[in-house]
Specification:
single chain; alpha+beta; 6-stranded antiparallel β-sheet; 2 helices; globular
Length: about 110
């Protein structure tokens, strides 16, 4: 099984701290935040997947900033690589009024072939 993630481009117009509060309520989990070379990353773990949120602001350079926050749901089992699991995550976001633009599944790590 290759690790995979489901990435969401979030459309939230708030601070990263406020976004983490919303996501903590939505997922009923605390997110642990760390500074990764000038960019905040927060994550929380579940039994077979983790949720990772990446700040759009890069404090090292304005040029490196993104337009949107991203939310990755990294799965540890192919049993979660399906429309039902994706629908559950989308439902959590929608139910808690967390706006997102698009989502995509990707392998992790990306294949070099």
């Amino acid at each position: 099984m290759k690790r995979r993630w489901l990435r969401f481009v979030l459309l939230e117009d708030c601070s990263f701290a406020d976004l983490l509060i919303k996501l903590s309520i939505a997922f009923n989990q605390q997110f642990l935040m760390r500074d990764d070379k000038g960019r905040y990353i927060a994550e929380t773990d579940f039994d077979n997947y983790k949720v990772i949120v990446v700040d759009k602001v890069d404090r090292l350079s304005e040029i490196l900033c993104d337009d949107n926050y991203t939310l990755d749901v990294v799965i540890d089992s192919d049993g979660y690589f399906n429309a039902s699991f994706e629908g559950m995550i989308k439902n959590i976001l929608s139910k808690h009024a967390i706006k997102w633009e698009r989502s995509i599944w990707a392998p992790y790590p990306l294949s070099t072939h």
